[in-house]
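User: Before I run my own analysis I want an independent prediction to cross-check against. Here's the chain; please return only the structure tokens and, at the end, one sentence I can use as a sanity check.
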Amino acid sequence: METTTRSNCAHDVPRAERIARLNDELRKNGNGGQILITKGVQALVGFDAEQLARELAAFDEFDPFNDPHGERDFGSLDLFGGELLFKVDYYAPDLLFGSNDPADPTVTQRVLTVLLAEEY
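Assistant: Structure tokens:
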């Protein structure tokens, strides 16, 4: 009799990919953290939060230059006549300090910030 063991453990996925998937969930669906938009972005002529959400969700231009660690935590968009950047940061659940383990959503609060390139 042959037995097959199948594991769905999160540790079967490489650490950077676990982090990337959690970042994708926030960027694409708004789940697993907070999304902050600077006043500079909100002041752009034609700013539309729904369009921004669609553009963030559709963003897939990750490469070794903007994503050297494979976490899909940074990108840029040309939108509303401005160059926008987005960056995911990892905090402890109380948002006071950095997370000890960004791959673990139980100890990490993600914050995706959208800002003007000149605000970086």
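Sanity check: The radius of gyration is 17 Å.
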